[in-house]
Amino acid sequence: MTKAKRLTSPPPVDRDTFILPHSLEAEKATLGAALVSTAAADYLVDHLQPPAFFRRVHQLIFECIRELRAADAAIDFITLREKLEARGKHEDVGGPVYISALADGGTSGNVAHYVGVIKDLHLKRVLVAHANQTIALVAEASHAATAIVIDADRRLIELQAGHTESRMQSLRASSAALSKDLEWRVNHQGELTGPTSGFASIDELTLGWQRGDLVVIGARPSIGKTTFALNSAVAAARTGARVAVFSLEMRRLQLEYRILAQLSGVPLTRVLGGHLGEHDYKLIADAMCVMGDLPLSIDDRSGQTVWDIRGACRGLKAEAGLDIVVVDYVQLMPGTVERKGATRNEEITDISRRLKELADEIACPILLLSQLTRESEHRSDPRPKLKDLRESGALEQDADLVCFLHRKNHREGGTTNFIIEKARNGPGGTVNLTLDRDVTTFADGGEEAPAPPAPEPEKKQRARRQG
Known about the structure:
The protein is an alpha/beta fold. The chain is built from 17 helices and 9 strands.
């Protein structure tokens, strides 16, 4: 994977002589083009906003051009002059002489190029404004450095989202890429198109975890959310996938011992207690060699926000590439909604949306673990459902895959149902896994799950809950 190009630092700028980036020539060229070509005027209206122009006079002229196009009126020297006169701005822009000069110099041949120049320079001016705002916050000396960094990163994210080029593409233009992708699938029947889940039965349904997908994995406590995610992360890393694990609950050392037990097959309790035999040392030594080569990174800071995770993922993606992200778990993430009095539901909704955006931005699947409510414990069919996702229905809406882990007795190992309750781009279904609690490892297979009981009438369910 190609690393992101780093920009070299130029010499310090003299702020007293610094002039904001702009090009009056490009602005005149685009406005002149709009006066001689309807197609050019449409292109300007579709791709620019008034603030993109540096000179206020040009902003006024462009606003009038937009109003004329909205009214489906002709755009030329006369109609523009009349529109400016109606707004009382005719003399402000230099009168008929200036407008005439724009029209005389107008040509539609390079309008797309000049629009690109204007957008680039406008973005640079906005960056200057953001940098000045950051400097002002530092100068106040009343904010923590981490808070200033988060604020700057948030504004850059919003800026990036507002200036990202459209992905709109006609089917005619994209048909060649579609044909090529289909040909690959035919020639590689059954091959995974994303990092492996580590379980053949799940991969058969999903073809691996897919790029850009938000995968929500929910379960009640002690069912094995962390174990499953860690098993999947290690399996993907063993194939060369670069993995990032953000653990808000368990510490790095705890996770490393779990991975060691998983790879060595030595029971975790014996590893932690130091009760190792001669044969165990050989297994552990081999496992530690494997661990040392895994492209898997762990961040175990508690209280990480979605902004912290985004920053870390972007850094990993730029430095060495990134293929899969695990976040354990969403209910432990603090909210960053700035509105005073925001509810926890609103905070989880914001986290969910931003993690979905991040998955798309870094082109990686994000496995987001989630607690479930106790509601299922009061139903005749205790298997989890979408409405059991705790604290936010947005998790269900934003996720491309919603999966549940369910086992009859959470205190024991054994057969565990992996339920794909929602699959935006594929089939749902249930597969059986078996949990070996001694070595904290799931494996494919298990006893067939019994058929779910018939649903109870609503009145009977309410009576049982109240009783």
